[in-house]
Structures are given as structure tokens and as C-alpha cells.
């Protein structure tokens, strides 16, 4: 059986879930509902080591859209992945996309139904088999104070054969011995014969920052223990992060790349009126078409950038010194990763380029790359402003070093309050660092359309 036939139905679900969330978010944002009925976002990112001597990285994006009515029922969309790598950047990467509906049944009792897509890939390693599962699960959950417990039953839809049914047990609580300690556990009884689990103990260091000890046994991998730190922001009291965004889009006229998934979060380490120091972490993954637009497709590579900046205001602008690390890890191919490090100077006319605070936005950087000769980047944005719920704009981005190029231009609409929702159409071309690009750059093959979600916590 060929690789395309084994990949499953990731394509349809990955595209449909963000668009379904968008259709729900539009009425809530434009009609100006009450505070409790607005779309909301949450982000968490964990870093650390596991007991099998690997490093791990686990970002989690959650977007929710209340439907109104009594009790606050609503839809949710979770995007997350867990990547484990050795010293050569090789290892498994597990993707999860969860979409569903939750509603209270009575005081302290709620019901939830969800479709959970899972697939596993390998970075910088050849893999001709892609584990691909679609869980359909219904749950009942009890809540009392800081404690919750739940039970669910489900089945599998399509994907890798050999999976038929599952039961799910979950529990979580806060204030174990000390108020800073929280715990959570979920057990899956797969095919009513195999036990999988995920359990964690977390100690809060400050609002939005935790030390985490976790045990994990997931599909077809040995059990492992994780030790690390986790940062997050949820729009409430937990605000260790400044902002995060996630983008899902498609290449409608291209027969090699079909989908793009991007995400970014900002970690502020110093904030003063006269200066600030922050770290931006971003990932991007173009997905290959596979067997067709509505068929199977999977990631071509995982691309990361981590940028640290020390910034001070200079007149009406903001100037900074930056250090930047980029990495490109091909997926399911025996192609070694490539990475680069650079440093230089940057300037911008507002603290966050993505906020539509003024009609003209710009950001530029230039510096020396220790491996690829130079590093250059520029962003220019034009947009409408004012109190109107609906705005429109144009963003243009260009990045380059001696081996890699990124060019993007998009026209967008913007609406929303707590979550800024931006459907867009434009062009996008990325030349990677490692291996060959699937794109030859001809115009029809770089046309892209999609939707972005932005959330700020300041």
C-alpha cells in the first residue's frame, strides 16, 4: 500500500475545522454580543526534556465561540502538536486537531461532543507509514469548585485500520497540598483492550508560568516522562504571554502544496516605558497535496524562528538589537535539518505590527547571518482605522538570507474584539533552507487564501 493511501483523511478535516469556527465567530463579533458571548482565545507552550533523552516542544492553541442562550454553550477548536527531537533534530511529531461543542446540562454538569484528528510524522527521517486516527467522542463532565471529572465513549472514523471503539476517563483539580499545585489526568481505553494515558502535576511560578512533570503513553509509542516549563495566556488572570496568532490557509490552484498552518507567540521578559525585551517564537508548516484537494495530505516540513529583541523608543519609532535563530526540518524524508543564527538592528513604528493601531505600519531588520551571509526582513501594512467593527487592509512581507526567501502579500478584512478574525487572499512563496521546495514560484501556484486569528493579552 502506498504512502498516499495510508495517510488518511487529514486534508478535509484540517481545512474544514478552522473555516467552521470562522462561520461561527462572524455573527458573534459583528453583532456585538455581551462580554461573556464573545469569541475567546487561549495559548500555552511547553518546553523540556523527556526520559528517553529527547527535547520536546508542545504548543496548544484554543479558540472558542459561544453560541449564546442559557448556560453559555458553544463551539471550540483546539490545534496542538507534540514534537520530540534528538540532537540531530530527528524524532516523532504528533498533531492533534480537536473541534466540538460543549453545553451545560445543569449546575455542575456539562456535555461535550468532539471530533479529534490525530496523525504522526517524523522530522528528518524517512517514513512511508503515517499513523492517522479520527476519534469521535461524547463526554459527560462534573465540576465542583476546582475539581472536575468526566467519562466518555467513542468510536473511530476512517483512518488507520484496527481501531474500533474507546472509553475515556478524565479528572483534574487544583490546590493539592498547596494552592500553587494543580493536576490533571486522562486515560483512554482503546479498543477496550489497551490503556493509554496522560497525567501531569504542575506548580505555578507566576500567573501564566508553570513547572510541569508529566507521564505520557500514546498511540504506538513507549511510555515517557516529561519535565519542563509551560507558559500561557487565556485572557483572564493568566497573562504571561503578550499575544499569539494562528493562520490556516489553502493554495487553491496548486497541485503540490495545498494547505499552510502558521503560528506565533510573544513572550515579554522586560516591559518598561523606556525599554522592553521580548522573544517571538513562530512556526510554519506547508502541507503537501497528496492524493488531491479533498484527499490525503501531510506536512512537507516544520520551519521555526526564535527572535529575541531588546528595544527602546527613538522619537516616534522603536529601535532594537535582535538575535535570531531559524530551523528547517523536513518531514518524513531522510533529509538533514538546516539552521542559521543572525544578529542585527531592527526598527518599527508601533510595538506590534499585527495590531491595526495606525493606517500605516512598518517593521524592518537587517543584520549578519553567521552561516548564510546576511539577514534581511521587512513588513509594510496599510489599513483602515477607527471605531468601526469591520476594517480592511493590505500586508506585504519579505525575508531573505543567502539561502532562503519568503515573499507574501495579502488583502484582508478584520473584525472581532477579544479575538481579531482576518480572512485574507493573496500570494505566498517560501524557499526553504533544507532540501528542495515543492513550489516553482509560478503565479497560480502561489495564490493563497485563508483566515488568521489574533489575540492580545495586554
Overall body shape:
globular
Q: Total domains, how many?
A: 2
Which stretches are low in confidence, meaning pLDDT under 50 for 5 or more residues running? 1-36
Described by strand count, sense and barrel closure, the largest sheet is: 12 strands, antiparallel, barrel
Strand content: over 45%
For the residues shown, what is the average pLDDT? 86
Instruction: Please report the distance between the alpha carbons of the first and last residues.
Output: 51 Å
CATH topology of the largest domain: Outer membrane phospholipase (ompla), Chain C
Instruction: Give me the side-by-side strand order of the main sheet.
Output: 1-2-3-4-5-6-7-8-9-10-11-12
Q: Given the structure, what is the number of helices?
A: 2
Order of helices and strands: HHEEEEEEEEEEEEEEEEEEEEEEEE
Give a short overview.
The protein has 458 residues and is mainly beta. The chain has two helices and 24 strands. Mean pLDDT is 86; it is low at 1-36.
Description:
- By secondary structure, the chain is mostly beta strands.
- The chain has 2 domains: 3-233, Phospholipase A1 (Outer membrane phospholipase (ompla), Chain C, Beta Barrel); 243-456, monomeric porin ompg (Porin), CATH 2.40.160.40.
- 5% of the residues lie in helices and 61% in strands.
- It has a 12-stranded antiparallel barrel. The protein has a 12-stranded antiparallel β-barrel with strand order 13-14-15-16-17-18-19-20-21-22-23-24.
- The protein is globular and about 60 Å long.
- Mean pLDDT is 86; it is low at 1-36.
